[in-house]
Design a protein that fits this description.
4 helices; single chain; mainly alpha
């Protein structure tokens, strides 16, 4: 029952952290027209909300397995690599010719920062709880 409370805390804390990161990167300059900017921001907002849910599913799977801390770290790496794969697949599809690197770099920061903040917030909460639980179990057994 206590683990369920920690998952709820991780869910809420990561959602708040992701929305704060989203608000912070929204202050960066944007060169799109008004309609494109609005649709892009809605897409990033939905992507961040979906990433909160995806992170909870992956971390939930990792917690119920053996070697929890190792699997949690592995899921953190997976969640960090997912946005990078979007960039790599985009480069493979479109190539690197005629890219405005400043504009695309700002777009990458606007996309990555909330997603990585969500994944890191969830991992920190679960890691702290599980490491304390392991320490208490070791102390009780000795």
């Amino acid at each position: 029952m206590r683990l369920a409370g920690v998952f709820i805390l991780a869910f809420v804390a990561s959602a708040v952290a992701g929305m704060l990161a989203y608000a912070a990167v929204s202050l960066l300059p944007d060169w799109d027209d008004a309609a494109g900017r609005g649709l892009g921001e809605v897409f990033r907002l939905l992507l961040t909300a979906g990433y909160v849910i995806l992170g909870m599913i992956l971390y939930g799977y990792a917690v119920w397995r053996r070697a929890r801390s190792r699997r949690l770290k592995r899921m953190l790496y997976v969640l960090f690599l997912v946005p990078l794969m979007v960039v790599v697949l985009g480069l493979l599809d479109n190539g690197v010719r005629h890219i405005d690197w400043l504009r695309e770099g700002v777009g990458l920061v606007q996309m990555f920062a909330p997603l990585w903040t969500v994944a890191l917030a969830q991992w920190l909460i679960l890691h702290i709880f599980l490491s304390r639980q392991t320490t208490l179990a070791k102390a009780a057994s000795t």
